[in-house]
């Protein structure tokens, strides 16, 4: 990066060249905002390779690739970033002003980080230094944070440790991680444009590493409900682990995924945690370690996602039945 170079002067009548690196759906809106901006040119999009998907395990392109190809942008999907001469040549041929990375999914080696004229910039979906790592949106919901947001930052070799450029926060309220991801994606789109166009006037701020927290990759087992936990903890698990792995339990030996529920306080019951203690036409209520959980939307193994009302009209539940393994 060369802060002494005046970017405003450098781009008089010339579009800034940006190579974009991103893979999942949350990275589409920021890319779209750059593609549509009259002062920005995206000659290349780099994303992860196609992955097997669904029961047939057919190779499916990542969402960013689909968008980029529709927009007529060249897409490159390297199997590895280290010692990749083809990638280095592609980047050096373009001579990008900026590298913009949004949920790409891999650590970038130094030679790639240093390939942009001005800077490599990352759009990260948390208020850094909180929630560095792979799944910041999900863990912010699961852990009961009141706010999260988007950070644009200068990239360094460490995991999400670079200096902060711009930040904006949002309230989480009762959003699930899918809804929150959509909101943050739009915010990221706004913030990356602002960051690039005002880059020379933004004073980078070092992160306070002592305040950092980590948002690890989610495992299937993270979704398994422990009914001895509080109802509010389980309700956050339900909102936080969407679309995968979903919060799940078992009833009569079959898996049940939970998609929407609400906390009900102070219902007296002598039943054990995990027991169904109330059933009506609209919902059923399960006792937890503290308080109870009213289930409103679910999916039984082998069936489609549905409301508890629809489920109860075709399935017989009884008080005292227990959920769990």
UniProtKB/TrEMBL annotation:
<dbReference type="InterPro" id="IPR011034">
    <property type="entry name" value="Formyl_transferase-like_C_sf"/>
</dbReference>
<dbReference type="InterPro" id="IPR002376">
    <property type="entry name" value="Formyl_transf_N"/>
</dbReference>
<dbReference type="GO" id="GO:0004479">
    <property type="term" value="F:methionyl-tRNA formyltransferase activity"/>
</dbReference>
<dbReference type="InterPro" id="IPR001555">
    <property type="entry name" value="GART_AS"/>
</dbReference>
<dbReference type="InterPro" id="IPR005793">
    <property type="entry name" value="Formyl_trans_C"/>
</dbReference>
<protein>
    <recommendedName>
        <fullName>Methionyl-tRNA formyltransferase</fullName>
        <ecNumber>2.1.2.9</ecNumber>
    </recommendedName>
</protein>
<feature type="domain" description="Formyl transferase C-terminal">
    <location>
        <begin position="218"/>
        <end position="315"/>
    </location>
</feature>
<comment type="function">
    <text>Attaches a formyl group to the free amino group of methionyl-tRNA(fMet). The formyl group appears to play a dual role in the initiator identity of N-formylmethionyl-tRNA by promoting its recognition by IF2 and preventing the misappropriation of this tRNA by the elongation apparatus.</text>
</comment>
<keyword id="KW-0648">Protein biosynthesis</keyword>
<dbReference type="Pfam" id="PF02911">
    <property type="entry name" value="Formyl_trans_C"/>
</dbReference>
<dbReference type="InterPro" id="IPR044135">
    <property type="entry name" value="Met-tRNA-FMT_C"/>
</dbReference>
<dbReference type="InterPro" id="IPR041711">
    <property type="entry name" value="Met-tRNA-FMT_N"/>
</dbReference>
<feature type="domain" description="Formyl transferase N-terminal">
    <location>
        <begin position="40"/>
        <end position="195"/>
    </location>
</feature>
<comment type="similarity">
    <text>Belongs to the Fmt family.</text>
</comment>
<dbReference type="InterPro" id="IPR037022">
    <property type="entry name" value="Formyl_trans_C_sf"/>
</dbReference>
<keyword id="KW-0808">Transferase</keyword>
<dbReference type="InterPro" id="IPR005794">
    <property type="entry name" value="Fmt"/>
</dbReference>
<feature type="binding site">
    <location>
        <begin position="126"/>
        <end position="129"/>
    </location>
    <ligand>
        <name>(6S)-5,6,7,8-tetrahydrofolate</name>
    </ligand>
</feature>
<dbReference type="InterPro" id="IPR036477">
    <property type="entry name" value="Formyl_transf_N_sf"/>
</dbReference>
<dbReference type="GO" id="GO:0005829">
    <property type="term" value="C:cytosol"/>
</dbReference>
<dbReference type="Pfam" id="PF00551">
    <property type="entry name" value="Formyl_trans_N"/>
</dbReference>
């Amino acid at each position: 990066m060369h802060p002494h170079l005046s970017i405003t002067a450098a781009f008089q009548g010339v579009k800034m060249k940006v190579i974009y690196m991103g893979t999942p759906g949350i990275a589409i809106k920021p890319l779209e905002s750059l593609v549509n901006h009259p002062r920005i040119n995206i000659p290349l999009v780099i994303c992860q390779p196609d992955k097997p998907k669904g029961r047939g395990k057919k190779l499916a392109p990542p969402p960013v690739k689909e968008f980029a190809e529709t927009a007529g942008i060249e897409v490159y999907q390297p199997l590895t970033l280290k010692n990749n001469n083809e990638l280095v040549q592609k980047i050096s041929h373009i001579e990008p002003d900026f590298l913009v990375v949004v949920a790409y999914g891999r650590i970038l080696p130094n030679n790639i980080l240093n390939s942009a004229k001005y800077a490599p910039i990352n759009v990260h979906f948390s208020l850094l230094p909180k929630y560095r790592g792979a799944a910041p949106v999900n863990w912010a919901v699961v852990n009961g944070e009141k706010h999260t947001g988007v950070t644009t930052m200068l990239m360094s070799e460490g995991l999400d440790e670079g200096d902060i450029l711009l930040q904006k926060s949002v309230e989480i309220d009762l959003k699930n991680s899918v809804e929150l991801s959509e909101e943050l994606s739009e915010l990221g789109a706004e913030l990356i444009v602002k960051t690039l166009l005002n880059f020379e006037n933004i004073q980078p701020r070092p992160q306070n590493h002592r305040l950092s927290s980590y948002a690890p990759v989610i495992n299937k087992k993270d979704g398994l409900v422990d009914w001895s936990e509080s109802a509010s903890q389980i309700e956050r698990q339900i909102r936080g682990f969407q679309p995968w792995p979903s919060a799940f339990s078992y009833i009569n030996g079959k898996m049940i995924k939970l998609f929407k529920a609400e906390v009900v306080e102070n219902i007296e019951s002598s039943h054990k945690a995990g027991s169904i203690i109330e059933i009506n036409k609209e919902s059923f209520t399960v006792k937890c370690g503290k308080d109870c959980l009213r289930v409103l939307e679910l999916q039984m193994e082998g069936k489609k996602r549905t409301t508890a009302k629809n489920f109860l009209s075709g399935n017989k539940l009884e008080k005292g039945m227990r959920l769990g393994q």
